[in-house]
Write a structure and sequence with these properties.
It is built from 2 helices and 13 strands; from the N terminus they run ββαβαββββββββββ. By secondary structure, it is mostly beta strands. The strands form 3 sheets. It has a 7-stranded antiparallel sheet with strand order 1-2-10-6-13-4-3, with helices on one face. A hairpin with a 4-residue loop joins β8 and β9. It is globular, with a radius of gyration of 14 Å.
């Protein structure tokens, strides 16, 4: 995995972790939302897929690369619908104190905006199939406003 860093911020990326076909399979599992004037509640824009085989695939890969013993608490497909965004935050401050790390797999990249950002200036343009890994407890991160099409990801919450 390639390490991207700025100051004390670190994010690891692995391009083309999933194929286009695999991404499309998961992309179709969650409905399109389109433009909203406000961010929809999470229960209306995510589905839990913790028991899906993707969990094991990503767990094995990350544990081998980082010599860790990660256990997935939750795995969700999330829809960042048009006009949605996320301010900088860490997961310690939003009730996820029982997880340390996070990963994302971007299921599409045919939207505008929606970059992954950090407090110290990392800005990642999502690419279909790309896997990220970072410490969600320490890293202040967010999502720039999404335009033109929904941005869909799989998020992994690791213990």
């Amino acid at each position: 995995m390639k390490k991207i860093f700025s100051g004390t911020n670190e994010v690891y990326i692995q391009k083309k972790f999933l194929s286009k076909k695999e991404c499309n399979k998961y992309f179709k599992m969650i409905h399109d939302i389109g433009h909203r004037d406000y961010d929809l509640e999470w229960d209306k824009r995510m589905i839990n897929i913790t028991k899906d085989p993707i969990t094991n695939k990503v767990t094995l890969f990350l544990n081998k690369i980082f010599n860790l013993n990660l256990i997935a608490k939750d795995v969700e497909i999330q829809n960042w619908h048009i006009n949605s965004s996320s301010d900088l935050h860490n997961h310690k401050s939003v009730g996820r104190g029982d997880t340390n790390y996070n990963s994302l797999i971007y299921l599409n990249d045919d939207f505008e905006g929606g970059h992954f950002i950090t407090k110290e200036g990392i800005r990642i343009k999502p690419e279909q199939g790309m896997l990220t890994f970072f410490n969600g407890q320490k890293l202040y991160h967010g999502v720039e406003k999404t335009f033109k099409k929904d941005r869909k990801t799989i998020i992994f919450w690791w213990r």
